Amino acid sequence: MKTLGKKIRLLRHQKGWSQEDVAKRLDISIPAFSKIETGITDINLSRLEQIATLFEMTVVQLLTFTDSEQDQKAINELETINKKLMDRETEVIDLQKKVIELFEELRHNRVTA
């Protein structure tokens, strides 16, 4: 549930609302809302529906919502890993060429000996 709390906090920040603003709209105390955001309190379905409605989303949208900044970080990380993989593949190909050259040299030396 900590991930859901982070999503709720992100949505709250995007709206420019304080914890107090959201707590009042949900008709709960500020500490109770804080526990939702930090993942201390598990959210039941009715509270989840209430929060989704508050942010003008469906429950499914709320549960599957992702931060585009986080997505971009993941994409950048994948690109970095992919580049490293391509570099390693190039190294392997170069080593394979060297092995073939050495094998050919060894074979040539056996034929001439």
Automatic annotation (TrEMBL):
Pfam annotation, one family: HTH_31
MF (Gene Ontology): DNA binding
Alphabetized Gene3D superfamilies for the sequence: lambda repressor-like DNA-binding domains (1.10.260.40)
Keywords, sorted A to Z: DNA-binding
PROSITE patterns: HTH_CROC1 (PS50943)
Segments crossing the lipid bilayer: none
UniProt keyword DNA-binding present: yes
Domain of life: Bacteria
UniProt-listed InterPro entries: Cro/C1-type_HTH (IPR001387), Lambda_DNA-bd_dom_sf (IPR010982)
Residue stretches making up the HTH cro/C1-type domain: 8-62
PANTHER family for the chain: DNA-BIDING PHAGE PROTEIN, TRACRIPTIONAL REGULATORY PROTEIN-RELATED-RELATED
Protein name: Transcriptional regulator
